[in-house]
Amino acid sequence: MRSLQLLFRASPATLLLVLCLHLGANKAQENTRRVIIQNFEIPTTANRDEEVTAKLQVQTELKECMVAKAYLVSDVPVEGAFNYKYTRCLCENYPNTYYWDFHTNRTVQIAAVVDIIRELGICPNDAAVTPISKNRFYTIKTLVVA
């Protein structure tokens, strides 16, 4: 019986090792990187026929680069530069900023959409990744026209 108690008795070094391994495993599980971080800015109100500027800043926490296509979508038709689509290489320490200038006569809901796509000739040496879980990200804002 005495030998069995010695076998199950943990030394301080063993307990410290188990504690360190446990803390290290928890830290590794919390280290998730965000694929896309969006900051979409438009005025909340505008006058009829006033030019409005929409600004979208996109960044990633991934270490690999991606090909990102950014565009706007609305619940009512909007003409002009609103319909421009931008395709650029998005890398960790180099956020992309996009601008759209447009006019509208009605209140409109606008979605800033970023698609991660497979396209050659955008990123250097065509070195880009595509996320497996999700490749479309969006933010919706409302522009009230008085």
Automatic annotation (TrEMBL):
Gene3D superfamilies: Immunoglobulins
A single cellular component GO annotation: extracellular space
Any one GO molecular-function label of the UniProt entry: aspartic-type endopeptidase activity
InterPro entries in UniProt: Ig-like_fold, Ig_E-set, PIP
Primary residence: secreted
Keyword check for Chaperone: no
Pfam families on file: SVA (PF05326)
Disulfide bridge map: 65-91, 89-123
Keywords for the protein's UniProt record, in alphabetical order: Disulfide bond, Pyrrolidone carboxylic acid, Secreted, Signal
Modified residues (Pyrrolidone carboxylic acid): 29
Signal peptide: 1-28
Compartment(s): Secreted
One GO term (biological process): proteolysis
PANTHER family: PROLACTIN-INDUCIBLE PROTEIN, PROLACTIN-INDUCIBLE PROTEIN/SEMINAL VESICLE ANTIGEN
Subunit-structure text: Monomer. Interacts with AZGP1.
UniProt family annotation: Belongs to the PIP family.
Name assigned to this protein: Prolactin-inducible protein homolog
Biological source species: Piliocolobus tephrosceles
